[in-house]
Amino acid sequence: MATIGLTLEERLEKMLTALKKNNPQADLDLVRLAFDYAEKAHKGQMRKSGEPYIVHPLAVAQRLADMNMETNIIVAALLHDVPEDAGVPISEIEKHFGSDVASMVAGITKLGKLKYRGVERYIENLRKMFVAMAEDARVILIKFSDRIHNLQTLGPLQPKKQYRIALESLEIFAPIANRLGMHEIKGLLEDYAFKYVYPKEYKRVKKMVQERVKIKEEYFSRLAEKTRHTLAEAKIEPLEIDWRRKHYYSLYRKMLRKDNDMDKVYDIVAMRIMVREIPDCYAVLGIIHNVWKPLKGRIKDYIAQPKPNGYQSLHTTVFCDEGQIVEFQIRTKTMHEEAEYGIAAHWHYDEHGSKIPNKQLRWIQELAKVQQEMMKKVRDIEYLKIDYFKNRIFIFTPKGDVIDLPEDATPVDFAYAIHTTIGNTCIGAKVNDHLVSLDTPLKNGDMVEIMTDKNRKGPSTDWLKFIKTTHARSQVRSHTRNTIKDWLKSVIPH
Ligand code: MN
Fold this sequence. Notes:
Strand 7 and strand 8 form a beta hairpin. This protein has helices at residues 8-22, 28-41, 55-66, 71-78, 82-86, 90-111, 119-135, 138-152, 159-179, 183-197, 199-233, 248-257, 278-291, 333-341, 361-388, 411-418, 420-424, 470-491, and strands at residues 240-245, 269-275, 293-294, 300-301, 314-319, 325-332, 392-396, 402-406, 426-431, 434-436, 448-452. Strands 1, 2, 3, 4, 5 and 6 form a six-stranded mixed sheet that branches. A three-stranded antiparallel sheet has the order 10-9-11. The protein is of the alpha+beta class and 494 residues long. It is 56% helix and 11% strand. It contains 18 helices and eleven strands. The structure holds manganese (II) ion. Manganese (II) ion binds next to loops.
């Protein structure tokens, strides 16, 4: 990460520079104010990495500034964890930063931390997410940037948590980004998650790509030069000629379709030509085909026939110099921004927080479809999860903390797993908001609330008949033994 080694002040300046570059009118004082406000609110809080918490919202803001987003989104990004993690009410944020920022921050806070609390709760959370998105699509942009930074900083977390967050990003977040046409975001979510969900495959793909790209780097800069020259002769001056490496995860997916043979994947690195107008795209295509022979069946006109997600470009794969096969992607700047940022591309220039542009209403319908797909998907992942963690179940506290227990554990096992005192004073339990008896076997993903009574003298020896964990068993034994000893002491004179 490019920000490592920078001081907080330098990171802030870097973000402000990015914001100003794309948006010379931006109210930088307001952004600084939001930074100071968030820094103060998070004072004393640390990331798992040991860094001060504020590096997180700042990194989230940086990504959005790089994406050319308007000031209010940046301000909301800086403040996005203030209500949930620092307990500042939304009304305070509204007082200082106005209702537009406050409503975005409220939207993100409503999404919560999407803690995993079993499939039903998860689906409920996901529904909330779609509602928040439909209300204001900017919220999901902040959420995605938030998730990308969390994935980048998964390192210090426990493996089980790393896996869960990464799997969720890969199976839920990335497909949403994809359907919204945010390909850059989708690529990042997938690549950071890939490493934790399929570590072996990730290493293999990364190594193969690095070997190949190293050889090709010099080749591609020569090819870019030659392309520029050829286009100049035809009096076409492109805005940009660049080449980019395919994201690891999409490469991995593609390899699976191509018999695991990377030599059959022609677009590990693709040339990208950006021009001003649509006719220029076709002119460039003609010129390229005039110089290099195209591969049969590999010319794709996504301008005349956009992909279902709205993606537009011309693609062609040609036999290039020195026996190389290279894919060219030709597009206008508008197409490029839409390809990278999807619906988000429409907001940049709007300083006044117009939420969903009218012509994007189609997107809401799209969203409804994605939602249906996701709900199905969650159920599929749930099977995967149960399989993966056989014989152990996850039980959730009402606050969303996870307690890991053996199969068929009971509310009493759960109570002792939280704290001995809670176990000792336990008088009843609710599972998923329903009262149950204390010997009820718990199921993976249950949310359990323990009711206690301070005046309860201690555990009941009857519990030993159904308790599953050795921890709870030994606690009950030692406590009942104490009580009997105490009782004996009281009745037997010294
Ligand atoms: Mn966050």
